[in-house]
Amino acid sequence: MSEIRQLELPLPWLGSVNVWLLEGDPLTLVDTGARSDAAEEALDRELSRYGYEVSDLELVLVTHHHLDHSGLAAAIKKRSGARIAAHRETARWGLEYEERARAERLFTQRLMAAHGVPEKVVEDSAPFFEYIVESSSPFTTDRVLSDGDTIHAGGRTLRVVFRPGHSTTDTLFVDDDSCAAFVGDHLLATITSAAEIMPTELPGDERRRALLEYLANLRKTEVMQLVRCYTGHGPVVEDHRALIEERLAFHAERRDLIAAPVRRPLIFARSTCSDFHRCTVKMPQLRPSHNQKGILLRAL
Ligand SMILES: [Zn+2]
Fold this sequence. Notes:
This protein is of the alpha/beta class.
């Protein structure tokens, strides 16, 4: 079986993102890092540790559209001619990245305003959205994948498993022969993955319930036979069932905590979040991870 190498590329706020090099035929990278000079230089450096250059890459798999996982896809393709393979939903983001990022910004800022967030706080979220655009890049997908498809990558056959929730495009690439999976941010060892609030795709459509979708998909992953999950950030997960149980318990406890203020009449998301934050002072174990803070901030 060919080797799997963990390349850690720099990423503001979170520290780093994992890019996985699969040393078989075709030479494959799972995820890319954000579009930045620092990340691209680090990719060159990390690849050279194993005797490769970007131009050697033949295939790029993208676990989900977030900038830290797809930002360098277009640049890598340009430098190497590598093919990009991604789930249909990720491929759509790749084609329309800027429009979608703009729509996401508008949606989030309107949501904040609708919930009584002061104008100044809404304005102060601008750099975050600008960062998304600066650090991502549109890309074209050469092989569009669907749930259940298989793809040959790095000397192994990977099965495509669609597991949205953290984002609308989360995809696992599962190696059934070795019970291993590349899971992106669907499951992380040291951070609780956030479920993002997103606009509906069609006007008048029912709103997405991202967290419920995420938890349902986490339960599906829990029953899979896996011995190693190669994650988007931090270390490899070796006992995914224990970790998923921990995550489910965390969300159940948090749900109960949030339920009390939400039940009060005429409540805004901002005051609900403020109440929740006050509760976390007493219950530090329920404090959101930095990943979740961003989402709470966007909900505020
Ligand atoms: Zn990530």
